[in-house]
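fwd from M.: "can u put these together and see what the complex looks like"

so here's what she sent:
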Amino acid sequence: MPQDNKHCADSTISRRRFMQAAVAAGAVAVVPAGMAVNSCAPSGLQEDKPEPRDPDAVATNISSALAVPKTEISMPGPFPGRVACVTHSGVTKGQKPNHGEPQAVAAMLAAGMKELTGEKDPRDAWARFFQRGDRVGIKVNPVGGKLLSNTHELNRAIINSLVEIGVSSSDIVLWDREEDLLYDAGCTPENYPDIRCSAMCYLEEEDGKKVIKGKDRIDKNVYYEFDIEQQYDEYFTPYMINTGRRSYFAKLVTEEMDKIINVPVLKNSGPMVTLCLKNLSYGSTSNCRRGHLIMNRYIAEVCAFPPLRDKVVLNIVDGLRGCYEGGPAANAQYIWQSNTIWAATDPVAADAVCWDLIAQKRIEKGIATQEQVEEGKKQFDFLVRAENLGQGVFKSREIEHRTSKLA
Amino acid sequence: MLYLIIAATALLAAPADEDIFTLLPGNGVPEGWELPEAPQLFPREALFSHINGGAELYLQYGFDRLALADYEKGSLEVRVEIYKMNDAEAAAGIFAENSKGVEKSDKFGKACTLDQYQIIFHRDRYYVSVTCYEPSEELQAAMETLAAAVDEAIVNESK
């Protein structure tokens, strides 16, 4: 799918440079100052914060993305506000982490797609989004490693559904930002021999050493730019690929895929969540760590750029297991078998529904109070921002939550 | 992840950085278990590459380095992660964050939590996580042996 990327290079961003703040690398938490972490933290918490910055005062190149007209498949797709939820109480019973009972998983996916689209045959549901010749990327989230990453049987059910309607397996790629995380979670060529597993950052042998690379896998014509720079050290820079004011999109999304299925894992990230929009924004761009400095904007605005906005046609939240605390890494004591998947074309509505579930769990388990949850939603307003950018529906009264239970 | 062994140790780690490896149990602990690969070292800035956004909290508390080792016996696996924090308060802080609402025990370290998949504890400036990927009595026993060995090594280090 050829595209004109020139719009992204026409930034009028301010030249004003802001804090080198190397310490900000460690100081800017997922949880901004004043939030729950600080309020309950033991005295060991180190006050190593950068100078506060109003995210709305930061200049970005979002206008260049918004200047590009949407297409007929752009977010939020044909079903804004609709989220199909399917549960199966036995799907994880006796299964290892990252695994589910194959037939139950396949049945859940088929039911979710039918519920989402209103089609009677799941093949017709899939055919509404994909066709022979499409190059399809499946964006997973392997950050939780072997304890809490994508369910392999769900990945397989998605691949099988695509192949069944004519998409060639050679046109399917399972991908993430970092190859080592992807492989560690079991998304390897050995486990998925019929498709491609790929990442923006990868390791290559050079002079007998393994070296982290990625510069050849970013698209220098397509980037999100904002006027904050963050310096990384010699070790970390290769993982970020570049420094400076630009976060480049992976060629995987700008050049190598026509359509994307976004498959986040049901997880909290401090008092907020890492679901559809965060999985896409941080997983598709270089130099993304500084994005935490303006996180709400980073998540919403990166997803408003055409390579994501116009290609992510389906979101399947993998909630066979979820975590309500300790995320985005995996802490076993906070993982529960939620035995659920959600299907949506609207990533904002899916995030809103799943955030409510995680918040409810945090309250139930005594991790947060109702007031803290509400305060967190006010502070982490990326869903409101995404709704304002036209990516989906956040207001709960406008969300159509269709639920079904298979067993 | 295996590749990071070389990236982290061969390229960057100075011998002094690797002192933390002395806290890791060697081959045969528990009996029949071994370390098929050398342990990995993650310096401060490398933590993000290991746990991504999860690193921010550790860095905020004061993180120094991480030693990670995967122990195997046949198809069984246990991962040991030893997070060296800047001081004991930082280690206690991370433990507190990662055990909110969970029943504590004094079986390992100053305090610990035990789960069928994971044991976490803190002692001195270390926060330790021992993880397996399937529930079984053999794995539970292996996790406890490894946790006890690391705990003892930390105690001995401070003597």
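replying to her w this: The longest strand of chain A covers residues 312-323.
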